[in-house]
Structure formats: C-alpha cells, structure tokens
Amino acid sequence: MDPVQSIQNSMMKPAAGKMSARPGFEARQAFAGWLNQAVQDVNDKQIASTAATEKMARGENIDLHDVMIASQKASVALQTTVEVRNKAIEAYQEIMRMQV
C-alpha cells in the first residue's frame, strides 16, 4: 500500500476503544508506523536495485531497462526521503527559533 494512502486511511478511521492516558499517543504511533513503513519501502527499493545490478554483472538473463528502472526508483525514493528529512529539520529549527 502507498504510504500516503495508508496514512490517509489511518486518519479517516475513528479511534477504537478508550482514549489513551496520554493525549496524541495514537497519532504518534500512527506517524511512527508510517515513517517506519516509508523507510522500509526505500530500503526494499535499494535492495531490489542492488540485486538487479548484481544479476546483470553476473551475466544472468535480465534486461538492461529493468535494471535501470529499478535503479531510478531507488534513487528517486532516496532523494525524496532526504528532502522530507531536510524539510522536517528546517521545520524543527524554525519552531525552536520561535519565542514563547
């Protein structure tokens, strides 16, 4: 499932059961789960790219365009992750500069 869809689905569902003793606990858990899934997805793409490259280097039957597509998917996923991280750090730094 797409990480964006999974977070949208989790936001649409009402909280089941009692409220947690700590406010926002469910939201933190949902965000942590989404973040872990997104990082795992990037890792899976990197592993698939490496495997395809190794198959091609060994001379196995794999098309060059499949290797390049896997490589580009991994590259774009990693670049996106780095940009999201940079934006999160910028937002944190901006919050820290705010006067209370």
Automatic annotation (TrEMBL):
Its main location: other. It is found in: Bacterial flagellum basal body. GO terms for cellular component: bacterial-type flagellum basal body. It holds the Pfam family FliE. GO terms for molecular function: cytoskeletal motor activity; structural molecule activity. One of its GO terms (biological process) is bacterial-type flagellum-dependent cell motility. Keywords: Bacterial flagellum, Cell projection, Cilium, Flagellum. InterPro entries: FliE. Belongs to the FliE family. PANTHER family: FLAGELLAR HOOK-BASAL BODY COMPLEX PROTEIN FLIE (PTHR34653:SF1), PTHR34653. HAMAP family: FliE (MF_00724). This is Flagellar hook-basal body complex protein FliE. It comes from Alteribacter keqinensis. The gene is fliE.
